[in-house]
C-alpha cells in the first residue's frame, strides 16, 4: 500500500462513511493517508493550497521519487525465493512481463486521468466509467487490502524480531510485536506519526542495500545448484504463489490516481511511472540474481531473504532497520483499519461511546485498533507464511485492482484507442481475471494446507 510533494495521500483510505458510502479526503476535507504493505506516506488534501508555488502542481521528477518510495518495499525481499521456486527462465520471463506491464499501466493511468480531468482518486474514475458499480468495485478491492496489510506487516516484524533475538519462538516474537503495537495503534491523528514515514523509507532502502552487500560477501556460490526451469518437485500451486509474490513486488498502482491528481501535467505521469519502474526493476534483478546464485534453492522460500541470511551482527542491523520500517507502516495501516471500521461500525460503536462518556471516541477506537492487532497476532502465529500473505494481498491489490479494473475503465472511457490497444485491454481483463481466480485458489489451498499441518 499524492498530496503535496512531501505529503502523499493516495487511495487506500477512501474509507466508507457510516452508511457505507466512501468519500475521498479531497471531497470531504478530511485528512488522508496512503497505506499499504509496501510503504507509507501521510498527508492531507491531494491538491496544494491555492496561491502557493506548489499550487502549480508536482513536477514529474518529484512524482518519480514518490513512486519509488511507495513501491519499493518488502516485496523485494521475496524475490530470491521466487527464483528458487521457478528457476531462471520462468522467473526472468515473469519479471520482464510484470516490468513491462507496470510501465504500460503508467500510460493507461495517464490516459484515464486525462479522460476524467476532475478525478482525484481511482473510485472517481470507476464512477465515471461504470457508475456506482465501478465505485463499489474499487472500494471492495481497497477494503480487502486494508484488512490484510496489517497481517503481512505483523509477520515481517515477527520474523525480524526472531532474527534480532534468535532464542525467541514464533509465539513469543509475535507477542513482542503485538505488545509494541497495542499502544501505538491508539494514535488517532495520523499526522502524529507522519514524520516517521521518512525514517521508515530510509530504513527500508538501507535494509535492502545491506542485504545485497551481505549476499555478495558470502564466500563461493551455489550457481551450479540453480536450475533453468522450475525444480522437478515444484507444484503448480507453489508456482502460482511465487508468481503472485513477484506481482506484489511490482504493485502499488491502486494509489497512482492520488499522485496523478497533484501533477502539473497529468499526461506526464507515464514518464514518472516508466522511470520508477525501470529503477526498481534494476534493484529487483540484482537482489534476485545475487540471492539465488549465492543461496541456491536450499533455503526457506516462505520467508523474506532477510530471515535466511547467515546470522551475524550485520543480520541484526539489517533486521533492526527492517523492523523499524515495518512498525511505522504497521502503525499507519492500523490507523486506516481503525478509521474504516469505526465508520462502518458507527451504529454499534456509538452505544459503547455512550456507555463510556469520558472516553468517547477513544473507547471505540481502542476496541477496533486492538482487534486489528490481535487479529494480526493470531494469524501471524497460526500462519507465519510471508509469501502466502503477499500472495493473498496480490490477488486483490496487485492483479484485480491495477489490471482488471483500469482495463475495464479504459474500454469504457477511451473510445479513440487504437484497435491493437483495445485488444490489449480485453486481453488484460481476461488474463488478470484468470490469474486472480487461479491465484486465489492457490492461496486458499495453501492456507488450508498450512492450517492442517
From TrEMBL:
This is Amino acid transporter transmembrane domain-containing protein. Belongs to the amino acid/polyamine transporter 2 family. The keyword Cell division does not apply. The keyword Transport applies. One of its GO terms (molecular function) is L-amino acid transmembrane transporter activity. It comes from Chlorella variabilis (Green alga). Residues 23-53 are annotated as: Disordered. Pfam families: Aa_trans. Keywords: Amino-acid transport, Membrane, Transmembrane, Transmembrane helix, Transport. Residues 60-442 form the Amino acid transporter transmembrane domain. It comes from the Eukaryota. Residues 23-32 have a biased composition (Low complexity). Coiled coil: none annotated.
